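Q: Predict the bound structure with EPZ.
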Amino acid sequence: MSKLVVTGGHRLIGRIRVGGRKNSAVAILPATLLADGPSIVESVPDIQDVSVYCEILRHLGAKVTHFPVRDSEAPRVMIDPRGLAQGTPPESLAGKLRASYYLLGVLLARYGQAEVPFPGGCDFVTRPIDQHVKGFTALGATVKVEDGIVKARAPGRLVGAHVYLDVVSVGATINIMLAATLADGVTVIENAAKEPHVVDLANYLNAAGAQVKGAGTDIIRITGVTRLEGATHALIPDEIEAATYMIAAAATDGDITVENVIPKHLESVSAKLAETGAEVEDNGDYIRVKGNGRPRPVAIKTLPYPGFPTDAQEQITAMLTVASGTSLVTETIWESRFKHVDELKRMGAQITVDGRMAVVEGVTRLTGASVKATDLRAGAALTIAGLMAEGETEILDIEHIERGYERPVEKLSSVGAKLRKIP
Ligand code: EPZ
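A: Predicted complex:
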């Protein structure tokens, strides 16, 4: 495990370009296995979750080729599934990321059976998959978990069905879409997730020959087809990476222009930062955030898209530790996502957690301490806290950060942050 040493107290000023969206990449990479021919995925972020997924695809028999990156180009990956053999991804890889469960939908659609080790990933809370199972079952599969392996089996081709999700689940929406793409007949997903990466996946599938309608609304209709061709598809920008740097700008009283963004996807974050007193300028292709001294306290409630994203909650909580009053942070998506709070408290933050709510009493400053990145976004939050704090902060277990952030030390250093990675 490596650590990050951050020297706080420097305003971040400059430009940062965000990469392709992690949560699109980990859905579209497995989706390419549904096709009979090769696909090219563009703007693939250079992060650990992508490397692990590419390893899994290779293990299953697909040919994965990374194109050399030239200055002006985003990274591209070609996945050729023609050597695909029915198999099980190894626990050592599948256990590293949550999104390995998308292979259930994909392999079930292709082979009528799938065995995938119970997914890993961020371990901030119990993460059930009952809605995925409900969808697969409606499409005709039987699903059981044995010895830590999820086993799904269908008697033949999956059959389209009507699925009403009891909770708005991004993962279940995506997994059912993947399974239904090659099913016989029409599948309707009601109460579907509307996140932009659900739309991104639908766009890839449709480019490859699928018939998916309504992605981005809460009813998605998938008419099954018998085969998909490969397609070339560029991933949308990562709005959580963008949100993290926007918050870092406001938190350090800095001035960062975040490039390669879709501002519409960031409206809830932009609006909240403006409420804290930061200046937020949306210019179509980029968003500029200028800090304005000590942030004002605000109330945050995480919600499914287009509400404030849970994946930016930990970062903005870090910023609110130094607000000029008391902020309330309510987490409605995950039953508890407050592991970062104990670490922030080591740095002098005053936070009380009661169930799904954190009461953050602003202090005048944080002080550097030794803290632990307990998960991906907690790591991002502690990095922001370290950038704001007086003195040096040592963040342990930063592999969690590298799972989902592309070259964070390089990007932050380019805008004046003082931080170094110590392997
Ligand atoms: C996705 O996780 C993201 N991960 C998460 O991002 C994100 O926090 C989450 O969506 C919510 O936006 C990926 O896309 C790989 P859900 P997912 O199914 O799909 C409950 C990050 O930091 N639920 O939308 O696993 C669940 O407990 C990561 O990048 C069920 O009850 O989340 C939660 O309360 C962390 N049964 C709510 O739904 C189910 O079968 C939303 O979960 C599935 C989910």
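A: Residues 239-251 form the longest helix (13 residues).
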